[in-house]
């Protein structure tokens, strides 16, 4: 049985022998006699100094050498001056900062080309981090160009001659089954006609589809210069009549009129879940979906080219023959009846 608290304090307050070092001063434990105090990693007070008033000595001992002394206005000014006006090893544009500014009326200072070359060398690690791979890629492209003798593929000619814009919307709080109906409704229609359809539609998200159609139309005009044929006078003297992929015949007067070549939807992440309570103590989970709408805008010249390609392919096939002239294999040596 251990001593009481008062007796334990009296035993610990007993004087220790003076001939032992301070690290091995015996501590009188209750009922066991003197024991040697040893140091370990938990003997240090981790919370030492907490709660003391902030003085200059404490700040100097605990402050961060970089940002801890920025409370002083003088130290802050010196730190900013060192950071903004550092040497050449810290700032790659130091040569341009220290170089005298050129005047348009005076001649160029000697050594300007050398300074500019040095700046390019300093920037080489950023603009050209892997020069060997770049040279290999350029060599490969030159070999391909020489083998083709400057000829372009059909896909490259289409990309260079026809313009298009791919626009994707944000995820909307609706399902794929509901939004795919609107995507099918506007596919293949001119942009203005699709916007009119969405303006008078009774669907809830028709307004959102109309907003993204208008946004895609404005981006196509501003970024790609699409749909400016009437403004520039690029119209047909006689309307062109073509047949779409759906089998509908249309007349085209402006070859740069924008139409929706493709429109599709994509499933997004679930917006949340809710319990669906059922009978007999059962339940289900209702997940709230999100869906995006993607639109591919093209000009009517692309649709004219596709129609002409399909007609050329039909002409190359020739007339349909009921019994083509080809060898017959696996004939039976007897009648099949």
From TrEMBL:
BP GO terms, sorted: translation
Coiled-coil residue spans: none
InterPro entries registered for this protein in UniProt: Ribosomal_uL22 (IPR001063), Ribosomal_uL22_bac/org-type (IPR047867), Ribosomal_uL22_sf (IPR036394)
Keyword annotations: Ribonucleoprotein, Ribosomal protein
Residues annotated as signal peptide: none
Example of a GO cellular component annotation carried by this entry: large ribosomal subunit
Entry's Gene Ontology molecular function annotations: structural constituent of ribosome
Pfam families referenced in this protein's UniProt entry, alphabetically: Ribosomal_L22 (PF00237)
PANTHER family on file: CHLOROPLAST 50S RIBOSOMAL PROTEIN L22-RELATED, LARGE RIBOSOMAL SUBUNIT PROTEIN UL22M
Family: Belongs to the universal ribosomal protein uL22 family.
Protein name: Mitochondrial large ribosomal subunit
